[in-house]
Queue: 2 jobs
Job 1
Amino acid sequence: MKIKSIFDEKEVVFSLEVFPPRADVPIENIYQTLEELKDIDPDYISVTYGAGGGVHKNRTCELSSIIKEKYKVEALAHLTCINSDQRTLNKILARLKAKNIDNVLALRGDKPVDGDPLGDYNYAYQLVEHIKQQTNFGIAAACYPEGHLETESLDQDIEYLKQKVDYGVDYLISQMFFDNSLFYKFRDKVEEKGINVPIEAGIMPVINKKQVGRIIELSDAYFPDKFQKILDKYEDNPEALRDAGIAYAVEQIVDLISSEVDGIHLYTMNNPYVARRIKEAVGSLITHINGKKVG
Ligand SMILES: NC(=O)C1=CN([C@@H]2O[C@H](COP(=O)(O)OP(=O)(O)OC[C@H]3O[C@@H](n4cnc5c(N)ncnc54)[C@H](O)[C@@H]3O)[C@@H](O)[C@H]2O)C=CC1
Ligand SMILES: Nc1nc(=O)c2c([nH]1)NC[C@@H]1CN(c3ccc(C(=O)N[C@@H](CCC(=O)O)C(=O)O)cc3)CN21
């Protein structure tokens, strides 16, 4: 099923993101996590591909297929292009198709940590164009409420976003952010530019200290004072930091759902406990909003 059709049906979509286990551990290691994530009843689960510029790419297809076939949850396979040539990408797309995957998140990808980009594809829009021309996958893409790290300005970034969407993107997933007002400003600007596809808000529950540096590295997201205070106050108490991180994410999501967000995409970091607590806290709001849609 194309994920686009879920957006057509529902006022607010709720999705989860996982990363594949490292290549040197059995794939079955993630089954317990998936079991628990399925119980949360997400609309779909996405699977990262070499997240953060890493090299563990080969299991995205396998894991997406398991999510769909074994757990009966719709799957979205991430695919990055900066580190691949066209032949490799075509092989991956063929494998995804053979595994009955219907949806791809078309990304440029982080610059590789070691080695140079291959150079066939430098931007996500080129991958979107290729997938659109050669296949029948539903296509999602990424967007950046605070502007992408490498962009000179948010306006310029949104120009590029418009170009990318026009090549055939069905819907967008946002980079993580910790200040909803930045997301709302971005949403207004994007609409002004004539970008009409749904935008899911990417929410990262920050539940351990190690994550913080990584998030800054990957996104350079703005940390509001009240968020910074939580990090400073509880950094040495894992349980307190976890609970505060969950509460912060819940507060963001409550506000987003009350502000007509098209969807919530939760970066679970493969932690089903945290995902479940968040879903328990906001599930009735989602049900309420979705119950309202007529026809
Ligand atoms: N591996 C994964 O699973 C995930 C990775 N990401 C990360 O998101 C980041 C970028 O990916 P995308 O958003 O797909 O890239 P993109 O190609 O849309 O944008 C990347 C950069 O290039 C600029 N740009 C875009 N089109 C341009 C053009 N025509 N001319 C000049 N500059 C242009 C953008 O403003 C931006 O700074 C990467 O860091 C990626 O890895 C995000 C989510 C998941
Ligand atoms: N620039 C960028 N690259 C991405 O891959 C990416 C984004 N942004 N934003 C949205 C999600 C969030 N992603 C993330 C975020 C954090 C980690 C991270 O902290 N990874 C740890 C290892 C986690 C573990 O194995 O437990 C790390 O140290 O890299 C990974 C992917 C993937 N996506």
Job 2
Amino acid sequence: MDTESQVSAPFLVLILIPIFFFLILNYFFKSHSSNLPLPPGPTPWPLIGNLLHIGPNPLATITNFSTLYGPLISLRLGSQLAVFASSPAAAAQILRTHDHTLSARYIFQMTTDPHKLRHFSLLLSPECDNHWKLLRTTCRTHLFTSKALQTQSILRNTKIAAMVHYLESKTGSAVQIRDVGFTTIFNTLTNVVFSRDLMGFEEDGVGFCFKFKEHYRKIAKLGLVPNLADFYPILSGLDLQGLKRKIAECNRRVDVVYEGFIAQRRRDRDRNGGERLGDFLDSMLDIGFCDEQIKYLAAVSSPVFSLSLSPSPNILKMEDCVLQWQELLSAGTDTTSTTVEWAMAELTKNKHIMKKVEEEIRREIKDQNEAIDESIIPQLHYLQACVKETLRLHPPAPFLLPHKALETCEVMGYTIPKDTRIFVNIWAIGRDPTIWENPLTFDPNRFLESDIDFKGFDFRFLPFGSGRRICPGLPMAILQVTLILANLIRNFDWSLPNNEDPSNLDLSGKVGIAYYKQDPLFLIPQNKVLSTLY
Ligand code: HEM
């Protein structure tokens, strides 16, 4: 622990004793105030609830509890009640039948001021209110419709070309696949708004004094630490682990950089006689608004800054806009790059499937001297089936994002009290042997032979969720993942470092901001196609 976050022991005891008694009273009051038929689950201990039951692998433990107690179980996490749904029927009850009541969002205690989230956030908007609706619509219109995706296509191709060039330069050396995907996807998103790369494949920050990769790694690391305050919200103000403070510090540093982008664009335009880059930042400057108004409008009409839109007449502060911009980057980059990594791991392990993907790409690209055009993606049925199979076995959000009950309601004969945290265990559903034949086998054919899709209508397969909180980035994510994989497979042969046998590749995962491969995947590229294509 660093010195500034150390608290003297007697002081801690003085604080903790009254809290301890409050928690005991609170626990017994909540437990005995009514005889509500909660969903079944292991008997909780006083005060700590089921925390000790969870162990180091929450996915496996909670899935085991579901096998023992049924598709809807409840656990007490410290002072907080949590319900887990682990079957298509239970998921449908939560995400369709009771979507209205159960689609509020649980806000992690290490995030910023909840009042700001209510006004500025989409992902962490506590309720699906008018403000949230407006953000989703704006976001969909500017980022995720077919038209918006088509407009971004040149940009995507440029970033993919940069990835291919980088990998060509690494022929014969091991590269970390998640990191390559992360850099490509991150730069694609930052170009939509700022027309800039913010990361290099190796050089961090590309020309800025701020190191973006380091920043996001730090945030991801902090996201892995279980926060005591999430189990005992009464401790939130104390920030005993210093997590809130550390996140706030990280955000303050990155805020300054984004503010600088606006100021610099103004100067550049003045210097270049009003020359435009045509991105979102330019559109706002074109209208001729003052900075303060731009900050507000950035929130109203930008595909990315719009995530901070507030229906209130208050002018937004830049730091709030930036907060949400980062929110979208986190939602979009970690999930997508981790999917690329899992897919490459499965294809490396299953060489015959990798070969079939390669053959399909070769068949569909008529002119082998062409770079891959994304218009052929819909024809790559087998590759798309591989992406679905990857998301079935390794969903980046294995419990979706935590929902919260707005009101008490009854689900499958049990009561879910107001404020309960709700999780849908899509990891368990994706591996359920009563739903999937040989569930642990990576077999894309199962998706070629059926019409199961991930658009939220089939509750056996929900990698993007369903209902009002379904991932709005789905079309962009699928396009990005498929395009990156097509390029990795078409342009390079891949092998494991140290002649490692692919059949021994360990495919265990760990839960963090996303569901990551436990050991990052390192692969060695061998170039197959001449770089002049790109
Ligand atoms: C393979 C990639 C991705 C997967 C598997 C994924 C999955 C998910 C899931 C499971 C949720 C939560 C659904 C719920 O709460 O019930 C979600 C929410 C969200 N995702 Fe994605 N996502 C991906 C990529 C993206 C991308 C590329 C973006 C944007 C650039 C994005 C933006 C969001 C946002 C803004 C939300 C919050 C929606 C809300 O609360 O209303 N995601 N995503």
